[in-house]
Specification:
67% of the residues lie in helices and 2% in strands. It is mainly alpha-helical. It has a single domain, classed as Fic-like fold.
């Protein structure tokens, strides 16, 4: 396997601009409006984890939980991981080091880390039709990936690229999806974008299919930008755009409710 060459990435820049415009509007509300509090944003981020409870009641909704007990454990670990990420962001630490992968694995998938503590996988794995790189290649590919993302200045492109390539490498025996999505959200949240969560089972199915098709196309032509890889990047942009719009609407509603309460309070 070769990493997707960064210079081959072709992104929809109009969507990037649209997302940035919405994010700026959100921070204008929080900074300049007297009807908003600085913790409104954080409260909404954390509430997204609670909203996953309903999704996780459906078997395989997140492809992580097979039953109610696993769902509870997944949600608990997800909240712990998100709290950790927020603490790191407050301390001005972005996601940019290999050691942070293992930190996330210990939090989001402690059962996997217990079996293989602080180690990449030692076995060959297959994700759908995609045969992941041989175990001996994993450390080098992960190091190359962390080196590669340094040259991507746009945080959204950096996060999506990292997500795509780390799933393709599949460095751990289990927990790869969970670790990758938290890592991506760490990068996004550090640069003041909202986290991206898969919203329902159909969306998860499309996500997996698109990744699988992208991996297949890149196996045939490693250095060629293809329609499937482009589609994955586009879908991630769409998810971030929707989340940004919902975030703005939520923040706006909180402000309106607070203003109305103040008006009607004697």
């Amino acid at each position: 396997m070769e990493l997707l060459a960064i210079e081959n990435i072709q992104i929809n820049h109009s969507k990037l601009l649209e997302i940035d415009c919405i994010i700026k509007s959100i921070y204008r509300l929080i900074i300049y409006s007297r009807d908003h509090l600085d913790d409104d944003l954080l409260d909404i981020y954390l509430s997204e984890v609670n909203q996953l409870k309903e999704l996780l009641s459906i078997k395989n909704a997140q492809m992580e939980a097979q039953n109610e007990e696993e769902a509870k454990e997944y949600l608990k670990n997800l909240k712990i991981s998100l709290d950790f990420v927020i603490e790191e962001i407050v301390a001005h630490n972005n996601f940019e080091k290999e050691i942070q992968l293992f930190q996330l694995l210990r939090l989001i998938s402690p059962e996997t880390n217990a079996i293989h503590p602080n180690r990449y996988r030692q076995t060959t794995v297959q994700v759908g039709a995609h045969i992941c790189p041989e175990p001996a290649r994993v450390p080098q590919l992960v190091s190359e990936l962390f080196y590669a993302i340094r040259s991507i200045s746009n945080p959204i492109i950096r996060a999506i690229y990292f997500h795509h390539e780390l799933i393709r490498i599949h460095p751990f025996v289990d927990g790869n999806g969970r670790v990758t999505r938290i890592a991506k959200n760490w990068m996004l949240m550090y640069d003041l974008y909202p986290p991206i969560f898969i919203n329902d089972a159909p969306q998860k199915k499309v996500y997996i299919q698109t990744l699988g098709n992208s991996f297949k196309a890149l196996l045939k032509h490693p250095n060629k930008w293809n329609d499937y890889t482009a589609l994955f990047f586009e879908q991630e942009l769409d998810r971030l755009l929707v989340n940004s719009q919902l975030l703005y609407e939520s923040i706006n509603l909180i402000g309106r409710a607070r203003k109305n309460k103040q008006i009607h309070t004697p």
